Amino acid sequence: MTIIDGKAVSASVREELKGEAENFAARYGRKVALAVIIVGDDPASHTYVNNKIKGCEQVGFRSICHRFDDGVPQEQVADVLKQLANDDTVDGILVQLPLPKGYDSEYLLSLIPDSKDVDGFSPANTGLLSMNRPNTVSCTPLGIMSLLASTGRELKGKHAVVIGRSNTVGKPMAMLLLNADCTVTVCHSRTRDIAEIARQADILVAAVGRAGFVTADMVKDGAIVIDVGINRIDGKLYGDVDFASVAHKCSYITPVPGGVGPMTISMLLKNTLQAAVNRLK
Length: 281
Ligand code: GUN
Hints:
Blueprint lengths: L1 E2 L2 H23 L4 E7 L3 H17 L2 E7 L5 H12 L6 E4 L9 H6 L12 H8 L8 H13 L7 E5 L6 H10 L3 E5 L6 H5 L4 E4 L17 E4 L3 E3 L2 E3 L4 H4 L5 E2 L6 H21 L1
Parallel strand pairs: 1-11, 2-3, 2-4, 5-6, 5-7, 7-8, 8-11
Antiparallel strand pairs: 9-10
Bound molecules: guanine.
Guanine binds next to strand 4 and helix 6.
């Protein structure tokens, strides 16, 4: 069994981005720029946003952060988004999700032009992925594809089982694996006998949001297990996979923390650089 080192893969992505960001700045006379919008005081969301800003600094991007209190009129957030959309020196825009109750995230996200949608959440970017003509792809599933590539294992023809069907992780993950010639099964909260299906997986991706959901009896010997879970219990992080019982059955497994998590922001930075280059083409 090999533990996939997300921190190491992530660091090498960022090292590469650093060089590309320098070239961009030298060529275009400005830094690649990412704008982040956050509303409300959810501590986990603030941690993510702070890490995104730190990531920008690390690779030499400019970051712009708009923090709003919960209760700010939606139109005020919309105005900032419209201004960022029209600012030629801003390459990527993201709204940290979830937004507090009462905000229309569909409307607010629709104000981000597809060309600056570095989260890959827009209907156009989602549709292009499903047509296997990917433009910008959701960061977490994209990071998982890099982690799978780091194993050197062939994906073609493998049975991949994705547990979770969110628009941000489960669905784009299934599409990426399908585009990589896997046979893909998507399980969700209404699936009957998840364990039986999970046991058939050569590649098992757990994006359920329940600590320790995947247990040893659900894993085939030699499977690659990817744990997307970030479940905070009493300040400690737990994955969706019961690592202690599952690890010895796997060929490869991602730990929590230090697996998928570090990759997500690296992919966001990569998407931002790509958006910058594409917009100037
Ligand atoms: N909230 C949790 N994950 C994400 C993400 O990848 N992007 C955004 N914008 N919000 C999130």
